[in-house]
């Protein structure tokens, strides 16, 4: 998502609208989960909410796949060899992954982490989150571009990876990778030790976005976008119902099976819903074609908003006690949580507007802010003794 510079093309505007919708869904879900009382979270209505909110992380990753193809195809041949364009892209993706680790730091001191860090602290530090899935997943895609230089081979490998990830996830989650791999690599593979969004199955949603974006660009070249999106809607319905029907069969292919975490059928259901959502957003955007509106701002700055809202809601080593979870906690009813959701959304919108304005009009100032903030963070991180 951080890589996308879609410009003002109305054909690609729907991606920013899609990402805005996903960001709003994520803000709402995280706010309600954090602030609702236990009684409110015990109702059937909240269970429906959890099912809907369970789509936000896959949708976020799916959106990253959508933008990958658009930003990569323009420099397809340049990414076949090591050079400045590929080096810049790799550096950015590594920074996204490192940002994910920074959010999960157990202490604001490398000395304390090394000397006093427990096994639980290291599992927390190296857990695989959405940012890691984006960074690592897009690096894997660039590896496929680098080694499989023809579009057909790249496309075939992406499709094969989606199928493998979907159906191998239950088996991968049965393996204790800490017995065979270092903690950082083990945490990538499954959620056995606390990774909320490991590569299995979540990188599959990112790769699915790549497939949809690739087919969409082919449809654009043939001026068949509307027909493609109609077929995407039908395929989404078919994939969703396939996942539902397969789960009704009394036969299981796996020794251990968890529907909500590892099920290939649930993967199909969520993928089908994402295809339907993409098609619906395209039709809505096409009907109300208004480029460069406030409706796309959160989508255009989705990575910034994602990181900022996590810090505001859950805190970090910089603000461990000054965040909504610590200050308010699960003490709100539905109306109270809705009010905080609106307040958080407004705050994110203002912050995204300022960030976007600096990026477009005062890039030097933005770079100074980034460098200054990073330097201060690293200085305290490497000099603190606590």
Structural overview:
With 386 residues, this protein is an all-alpha fold. It has one domain (13-284). Helices cover 72% and strands 0% of the residues. The protein is globular, with a radius of gyration of 21 Å.
**What class, by secondary structure content?**
mainly alpha
Give the tally of β-strands: 0
Strand content: under 5%
Structural shape: globular
- Count of the domains: 1
Q: Give the mean pLDDT.
A: 91
Query: Count of DSSP helices?
Result: 18
Can you summarize the main beta sheet? none
Write the layout of secondary structure elements.
Blueprint lengths: L12 H23 L2 H4 L2 H10 L2 H18 L10 H20 L6 H7 L2 H7 L4 H18 L3 H22 L10 H7 L9 H23 L3 H24 L15 H24 L9 H4 L1 H13 L9 H4 L6 H28 L1 H21 L3
Helix pairs in contact: 1-4, 1-13, 1-15, 1-17, 4-8, 4-11, 5-8, 8-11, 9-11, 11-12, 12-13, 15-17, 17-18
Quick summary of this structure?
The chain has about 375 residues and is mainly alpha-helical. Helix content is about 70%, strand content about 0%.
Which key phrases capture this entry?
386 residues; mainly alpha; 0% strand; disordered N terminus
């Amino acid at each position: 998502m951080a890589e996308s510079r879609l410009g003002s093309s109305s054909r690609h505007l729907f991606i920013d609208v899609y990402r805005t919708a996903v960001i709003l869904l994520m803000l709402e879900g995280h706010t309600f989960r954090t602030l609702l009382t236990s009684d409110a979270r015990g109702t059937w209505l909240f269970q429906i909410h959890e099912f809907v909110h369970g789509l936000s992380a896959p949708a976020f990753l799916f959106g990253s796949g959508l933008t990958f193809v658009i930003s990569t195809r323009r420099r397809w041949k340049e990414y076949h060899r090591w050079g400045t364009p590929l080096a810049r892209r790799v550096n950015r993706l590594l920074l996204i992954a490192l940002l994910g680790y920074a959010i999960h730091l157990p202490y604001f001191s490398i000395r304390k982490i090394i000397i006093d860090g427990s096994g639980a602290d290291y599992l927390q530090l190296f857990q695989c989150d959405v940012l890691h899935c984006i960074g690592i997943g897009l690096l894997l895609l660039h590896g496929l571009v680098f080694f499989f230089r023809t579009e057909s081979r790249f496309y075939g490998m992406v499709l094969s990876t989606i199928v493998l990830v979907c159906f191998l996830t239950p088996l991968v989650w049965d393996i204790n990778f800490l017995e065979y791999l270092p903690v950082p690599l083990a945490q990538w593979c499954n959620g056995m030790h606390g990774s909320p969004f490991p590569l299995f199955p979540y990188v599959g949603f990112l790769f699915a976005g790549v497939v949809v974006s690739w087919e969409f660009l082919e449809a654009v070249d043939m001026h068949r976008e509307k027909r493609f999106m109609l077929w995407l809607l039908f395929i989404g319905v078919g994939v969703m119902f396939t996942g539902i029907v397969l789960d009704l069969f009394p036969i299981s292919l796996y020794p251990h099976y968890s529907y909500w975490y590892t099920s290939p059928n649930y993967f199909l259901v969520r993928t089908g819903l994402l295809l339907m959502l993409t098609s619906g957003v395209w039709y809505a955007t096409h009907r109300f074609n208004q480029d460069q509106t406030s409706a796309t701002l959160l989508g255009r700055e989705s990575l910034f908003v994602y990181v900022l809202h996590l810090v505001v809601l859950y805190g970090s080593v910089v603000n461990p006690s000054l965040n909504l979870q610590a200050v308010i906690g699960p003490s709100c009813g539905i109306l109270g949580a809705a009010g905080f959701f609106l307040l958080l959304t407004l705050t994110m919108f203002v912050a995204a507007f300022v960030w976007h304005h600096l990026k477009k009009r005062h890039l030097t100032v933005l770079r100074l802010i980034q460098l200054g903030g990073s330097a201060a963070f690293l200085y305290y991180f490497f000099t603190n003794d606590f």
